[in-house]
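pinned: reference chain
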Amino acid sequence: MLLCSVRACRYLQAYLDLAQIATKCATMNTAVDDSDGSLRTAFKVDYGTLAFTITAQYAPHDQVNVAYYIKTATMPGTELLTLPTVVVDVQNSTDPSFGYDNAILYSCNSILGLPVKELIFITRAREVDKATLAALEQRARDAGVVWDADLLKHQDWSECK
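pinned: its structure tokens
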């Protein structure tokens, strides 16, 4: 299990993901494999009083589309689930040792004829103001991502330890 280190930890501020319907306090800790460009993410969530971590692997789709990955997760029942994922936008940190300050990830696929979509807004700051989150959402829209705003869940970090 990866721990949420100061330099690698990011906080989910808003998301659209059926698998996270009852979650809160979600964090991501991402490591980059420089040998092949893949990403390994420890995704920690709280489901009520239970907390657990899911490891997701993001393998580069090809060498041309550098922000296009195939996501798989390490958990029971997901060996057949792969999600094409695009890093929609990234804002680099002014301090290069932190990598990036925020990012937007969008995944979609069709499983048994049903659409599966994930939209994730993550930041290095645990709490962000409404204007920052609105700007992130607008960047996703400007990039062509479409979603039902009523289904986007916003995290209230005051509920978290």
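why pinned: The mean pLDDT is 85. The longest helix spans residues 130-142.
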